[in-house]
Amino acid sequence: MRIRLASSRLEFWASVALAMVLLGAGLGWRQPLNVDEERFLGVALEMLQNGSWFIPHRAGEIYADKPPLFMWAVALCVQLTHLPKVALYLPALLAGAVSTGCLYDLGRRLWGRRVGVISALLFLTTYQTYSILQTGQIDGFLALWTMLGIYGLCRHLLLGPAWGWFYIGCAAMGLGVISKGVGFLPALMLIPYAYAVRKGWHGVVPMPGKANAWWLGLLVALAAIAIWLLPLIVIVSQGSADSLAYAQEILLKQTAGRYANAWDHREPFWYFFVQVIPKYWLPIIFMLPWLVPAWRKQLLKHDGRVLVLLGWVVLVLVFFSLSTGKRKIYVFPAVPALVLAVAPLVPWMLRRWFSRRPWGRTVFVTLTAVWLCAWFVRGFVEPRQEGINPHETMMRDVAQLTGNAQVVLVGWREGHWLFAQQPVVHFGFMDKSPLEHSVVWLRSHPQAYALVPANDMARCYDPAKARSVGDTSRAEWYLVGADADNGRCQSPPPSKVYAFEWTQQRVGGVASR
């Protein structure tokens, strides 16, 4: 017994270590290159600078798109490492390590040690695991809370009763909500569980007469949400109209409003099934011809474990498919449960595929090792190929060309603000007349400059007096001074002006304490 327990612990930590190695490959070489990574790192650094932890800001303007927990995590990692370009990726790396360990443990407890190892390896060989957990986006951090929610509920519903684990899962869901609104998704697991219990399926644990204990889970989740929500309510009750507008935006428009009527990333209902799953759920997708009949047999035998896991995967897919806004990253929360449903069938599939081909198992193991090694190598090769963020180079050149004078940002992207090395001014990220407002600003601040995209620049500025500073964010950018004003743009002063400057020590071109 002790030998078996020691072996399980060794396998657990080996799985976690493998996840750290594979997902951490290239850490320190990676650059925040897409708008999400630039935005979240910038918001976290601005939190450290202005101390506004419960109402995030982007270049001085309130940022109301996402709750702040992920930015808190990045800010904490910045404080610990003093390396912003490393800190951005640590939350997802932690999520990957925890998820791999949890999947090993659940697989072992539900079906045995061999299935635990397969669960961990299958998760690490799934394409979407790398596409999410090697980035500095919220969805990588959300995976931490989603996995802990799944783990806590599975320990309780399939292996329990385990009320302590159930409450841990509920707390994780609450923290998931203040990372991204969909953090509650593991709770949907209760739907197939309730059906299985009612129909008397095996593999699930009935717990009648425990209504108060179940409702306590909701209170635990709400308590976790209150870590952010209660201070926000206090701030809003004592604060300005801007803080009230922030609360309305983040609690209503960016959650229910965005789900029901998205204004960006609009895709048809079948988007995930046609354009995402066939690519990002490799290699599992190749197994479906064998998995589907096997799952059908397990369900006909009333295996509640399979019903709960697959039922939850289906509910997650339906939930996101019903929303008008869709991105490929949205369905990643379903991957861990799918892995747990697939893993116990892998030994059966291997026997079926290779029973008459002894060399087949060797080929399979070799291909798996090559696949993992390829992802490890890619972690180092890809950052080298991508190079330095072009916004960083551009803003360094802008600072040199202007002598660190104030720069007005027009039609800007997060990288312009994140890598700014001088004071910047803008009129709101969603300002509808930024070009006209920049002209008004330069007329009253002739020592300042404006950074404007080439598109439509000639409407207000003389192109002959503009200087090209690079091509980023699908636009060519020009630096203009007050002397480039062609006099054709007349506009009232902007209703809002945001002035911002990084004041802390810079690390690799990015501000940090």
From TrEMBL:
Keywords: Cell membrane, Glycosyltransferase, Membrane, Transferase, Transmembrane, Transmembrane helix. The chain crosses the membrane at residues 12-29, 86-104, 141-159, 165-191, 212-236, 269-292, 304-323, 329-350, 362-381. It is a multi-pass membrane protein. One of its GO terms (cellular component) is plasma membrane. Its main location: membrane. It holds the Pfam family PMT_2. It is found in: Cell membrane. The keyword Membrane applies. Residues 65-228 form the Glycosyltransferase RgtA/B/C/D-like domain. The keyword Disulfide bond does not apply. GO terms for molecular function: pentosyltransferase activity. InterPro entries: LipidA_mod_glycosyltrf_83, RgtA/B/C-like. GO terms for biological process: lipopolysaccharide biosynthetic process; response to iron(III) ion. This is 4-amino-4-deoxy-L-arabinose transferase.
